[in-house]
Amino acid sequence: MLDEKDLWKSSYIWIRYYGYSCVHYDKERQEVWLANKQKQHVAIFKTGSYTSQSLEFDKDRIFEHQEQINEFLKIEVTSYDIYFFTQKPFNQAILNVTTPIQIRFHSVQNLKNLSKKLAHPIAKRHLLLNNRKSHDFYKNRVLNQNLIEKGMFQFTPVTFSLITINILIWIWATFFMPHHTDIEIIDLGALAHFNVVHGDWYRLISSMFLHLDIEHLLLNMMSLYIFGKLVEAYTSSLKMLGIYFVSGILGNLLTLAFNTNSLSVGASGAIFGLLGALVALLTISKQYSQKTIFQLLIAVVIMAVISIFMRNVNIIAHLGGLIGGILIVYLGYYYQISKKAFYWLLGVAIVLTVMLLVKIFMTPSENIYNQIIQEQMQKKHYTQAEEMIEQTINRNYADDMTYYLSGMVIASQKSKAEAIAEWERGLRNFPNSVQLNYVMAIANRSLGDNKSAKKFIKKAAEIAPENNSVKILKRELDD
């Protein structure tokens, strides 16, 4: 037996799973109008008694007011589906028309009958689910025009997929992969300037899915749940995914341009991109109330306060992502209303991106592996430093400083002779290294071999004649 709750529940299913919005409710006619602006489609849910004449009148009413409907919805509606909830079936075929617009009638005797018209498996299951939700629950959801609240109950598969992927990767990294040292974190796919300029561009994306502790993961997933759902509900799944990745990449590019000596992981840049996109969407649409702004501000403040207590917060990525999200939305907006403004904004975006890339590649890149090795040496963790040196050499990331540090570790742990052998190995790979020639001169002088010491310091002086340390040692040896 159909009742009014079924009408509201069906309307709710269309809103939650198919991206419709309630645009009109006529209590006297017992009908709810839902519109999907992207599909240029209107779904009308009706209940109550009818006659053949009243059904024809419903159709004529649409034809007569088509211009006003389009003006009210700010789209050109191309098709209508009218779902009439009734125990008395009627002949749908004689009512349906295809020109000048398509209007289709559907006689709905029960929810099972209606479910056959649904292709979405989750929506179909939800429609048939015999839950205890009240008539008022569904009615309030359908009539709710608050953008934040409406967005939160819509079905958003991309948001849930991204959250699931992030959680699964965190479980994999935490329980099945080594992740305690910086080198191990780099191996997982963290963002590092040195690696990216050496060709590891995949890190612009891989780093967005890495979280090193549960607090970091929970904060980002909570934020993704809120802002991801809102942006996906307000735009579309594909557009939300595009905003997420482009914003995250822009945030990472900005990080690489201005932060060359540290590692970066996390989805924060992409999430701030969603926040920027949401702010831009609300600003453009002007469909916001004080309550909407207040709710959004509360979410932002909570994020900001929690971030204060997080370690190693990447403010640069946050800023880059925020700008990226705003930029993407305005590009889409101006593409629709002003091609001139669109191309101008696109040109600005391209110029800024090129400038970032130039900055990234023009900034001297310190070998982050050497930096990590030095940190371990300062802590007197020589065994770990030795392991990291071996990994660095095996991965072909070693330079002359790597061999210098390796020799220093060997000298402290083994013998000076073995250290000299290591520095000689480094010189075979980097014969023009000032650092290695200088340390070889020091080492040979300490062994009393001034002839060899002079040979190495002479080479160092030829390479770097203005180096003060080299000049002092050369002067001492010449005397």
Automatic annotation (TrEMBL):
Keywords: Hydrolase, Membrane, Protease, Transmembrane, Transmembrane helix
Main location as per UniProt: membrane
Sections of the chain in a coiled coil: none
Domain of life: Bacteria
EC class (word): hydrolase
Domain Peptidase S54 rhomboid: 199-332
A single GO BP: proteolysis
Compartments where found: Membrane
GO molecular function annotation: serine-type endopeptidase activity
Gene3D superfamilies for the chain: Rhomboid-like, Tetratricopeptide repeat domain
Protein name, entry field: Rhomboid family intramembrane serine protease
EC number(s) recorded for this UniProt protein: 3.4.21.105
Stated family: Belongs to the peptidase S54 family.
Membrane topology according to the record: Multi-pass membrane protein
UniProt cross-references to PANTHER family, sorted A to Z: PRESENILIN-ASSOCIATED RHOMBOID-LIKE PROTEIN, MITOCHONDRIAL, RHOMBOID PROTEASE
GO (cellular component) term, any one: membrane
Residues that span the membrane, as ranges: 151-173, 208-228, 240-258, 264-285, 292-309, 315-335, 342-362
Family matches, as InterPro entries: Peptidase_S54_rhomboid_dom, Rhomboid-like_sf, Rhomboid_protease_S54, TPR-like_helical_dom_sf
